Amino acid sequence: MTNEQYARNIQVPTRPIDAVLDTDAFNEIDDQYAIAYLLACREKIRLQAIYAAPFAPYPNREGVSPGVGMEQSYHEILKILDLCNRRADVFRGSCAYLVDEQTPRESEVARDLVERAHRYSPEDPLYVIAIGAITNVASALLIDPSIAENIVIVWLGGNARHMGNGWKEYNMVQDVPAARVVMSSQAPLIQLPCIGTVTHFTVSEGDLEKYFIGKNPVMDYLARNTIDAAGQYAAGKPWSRVVWDVTAVGWLMSDVNNAFGYRTVATRLPNANCDYEEAELDKPMTYVFFVNRDQLMYDLVERLSTFSAEENLDETLV
Fold it and tell me: Which CATH number do you get for residue 140?
């Protein structure tokens, strides 16, 4: 890939694109919003497949296999597709994280991504939207590094650089070797940091009651899930909830929603403690530093509301 093409591939695409989504859909309430939003953006993003990512589920994240979380996520993906009355190819991902930066984890997802990426090119890449631990994507790159030039990775992971050291973000801390593999690869990369950037994108009980409840089955499900989750930690108190994962899809639509600030920076790898190393790689990447909450929320609500009005909702995505 030429430097000029690489530079184009880390900018917001302004034409229709093909994409896959790698999601730990059962981990929190936000992945479900992202899946539904992606399904509603089909005039620009042609969804090719959804991948279930590993995560160690509550209540004992340290003691439960991430394969349990992956399997829960697989079924949650199917549930959201049903609520949206959509169909898509869904694949199971890794049941464990990487043990080092050289050894991939074999899975349906890793094999599918390798095979699928070879259908694309630097001039017409496959966009890989990753909103969980990035084990599956790293494994595919380790199995076949040549796919790097045919994909663009949009990852919600890590925290903002200005947060300083000592902050461990969940998507990154689960599998630091995978994060290092992806970030040091030749694949064009867009990073949406969590604390310090994406934390601006929140939803409140009032938002959900006014704009979600009663609109359609998927919006009801999202609202009830969020309100129930908040009731477990903020009962009787005012609250807002970060819906992190929507932003990874939203960035790809930012030529429409005008909701993001971003810039090109040199890549800095995380160390085992999730701190960014001072040394900069000779690899530019796009770094998102701002989310306009109201602009993105408006676009999300408008798009999800169409599920109740569209015809032929059972048509396939691919």
Answer: 3.90.245.10
The vertex-302 CA angle with 300 and 304, nearest 5°, equals: 65
Whether the Cβ atoms of residue 159 and residue 169 lie closer than 8 Å to each other: yes
Q: Please, which residues bridge with residue 151 across strands?
A: 126
What is the chain's length?
318
Q: Residue 215: what are its φ and ψ, rounded to 5°?
A: -80, -50
Q: List Cβ neighbours of 300 (8 Å cut-off, separation of 6 or more).
A: 33, 37, 246, 250
Is 222 a domain residue?
Answer: no
Kind and range of the H or E run holding 112: helix 108-117
User: Is 223 among the domain residues?
Assistant: no
Give the SS3 label for residue 209: helix
Domain count, the chain: 1
d(CA 9, CA 134): 20
Residue 152 and residue 108 in contact, taking contact as beta carbons nearer than 8 Å? no
Q: In the chain, what is the greatest distance between 2 CA atoms, to the nearest angstrom?
A: 56
Residue 249 corresponds to which tokens in the numbers above? 């899809």
Residue 225, domain member (yes or no) = no
Q: For the whole model, what pTM was predicted?
A: 0.94
The answer to whether position 312 is within a domain reads no
CB-side neighbour CA atoms (13 Å) of 41: 31
| Domain range for 192 | 3-201+243-305
pLDDT one digit per residue (tens) for the chain, 318 residues: 999 999 999 999 999 999 999 999 999 999 999 999 999 999 999 999 999 999 987 555 555 689 999 999 999 999 999 999 999 999 999 999 999 999 999 999 999 999 999 999 999 999 999 999 999 999 999 999 999 999 999 999 999 998 877 678 999 999 999 999 999 999 999 999 999 999 999 999 999 999 999 999 999 999 999 999 887 887 778 889 999 999 999 999 999 999 999 999 999 999 998 899 999 999 999 999 999 999 999 999 999 999 975 544 444 444
- Cβ contact 190:153 at 8 Å: yes
